Amino acid sequence: MRVCHVITKPELGGAQLSTLNILAGLSADKYGLSIITSPKGVLASEIRDIKGVKSYFVPSLARNINPIADIIAFISIYSIYSANNYAIVHTHSSKAGIIGRWAARFAKVPHIVHTVHGWPFNDHQNPILKGFYIFLERLTAKFTTRIICVSEKDLETGLRHRIAPKDKFVLIKYGIPLAKFRRPPGNSAEKRKELGVHNRDPIVGMISCLKPQKSPVDYIKACIEIYKETPNVNFLLIGDGVLKKRCKEILASTPLNGRFIFAGWRRDISEILDILDIAVLTSKWEGMPISIIEALCKGKPAVITDVGGARELVRDKVNGFLTCPGSYEDTAKKVLTLLKNKEQLKEMSKRASLSIDDSFDLKNMLNTLDKLYRSLV
Prior knowledge:
This protein is of the alpha/beta class. Helix content is 43%, strand content 16%. It has two domains: 2-175 and 361-376, Rossmann fold; 178-358, Rossmann fold (3-Layer(aba) Sandwich). It is built from 15 helices and 13 strands. The strands form two sheets. The protein has a seven-stranded parallel β-sheet with strand order 3-2-1-4-5-6-7, sandwiched between helices. Strands 10-9-8-11-12-13 form a six-stranded parallel β-sheet, with helices on both faces. 46% of the residues are buried.
């Protein structure tokens, strides 16, 4: 069965990691897999090297709206579809989801599947823009065979905004390689030293793309507030993106005295989580954050904004704290609560690891997706 996945940019985000896991994990005996994406991104080389997967890199496929580039991307993707006789096209993310699905319709691909890694519309947008995105999703959903949501919240949002009838939606939670994240910690002292942590003080960290959705500036501001009350703490920011320059400008003027470490993209997240004490996420909107699934699996309490599928992962005051989106003061307050109460931190750590069961295993996600593909064709 020939299946083509389409995603806008191969960066280290949840949608991209999930797609990478699907491409590497689905049986080569069952599927002839391809992927269409931009050539710009930290995961481009890894995608290119996946055995048995054919990669197509389309330079005009970009996240920002650009009518000329978007038309070129549409024609390029349509041409790839037409030349390969795919049974299924499976798109991911908003931009690739629109262009990729419309190209599939014109190429007469029999089955079109789209995964919503968080809807393109949210309450932080201009109402006119939000309305336009809702209209576009409704229109495109008319010829989409199945719409996969990674969280119950996204599914509810899709139904509430009448994107598509209920029978088109499917819930498939993100899966991670649980065995990898359940391994005993390695040499934590060496990892701390490698990252530039030369003390034994607690480490607070956020793993995220540096883009407006994730609001990394709120994380930095929260760290400043935390440092004012508890200077004996270290802060990590793992990631990269369009707000990198802005983040560095703010960091340059902070009083954190070398306590804040900007680590950029990393592929050793499991090992970094071993040395973390508290995981933070300051998103303004979300689908289902993979970084928090990984952190909880490692037994790290999470302090995250109450958006998207947050409540499906974090039970407030049990395995972490839910905070108000846009309020770095609230984030700082909840992190300080854990830093000042070692017993609560220890208890939440135990509950965190127990909150991620086998339903979050990568094998479960792959099996469910395999069944979906088979049911369609």
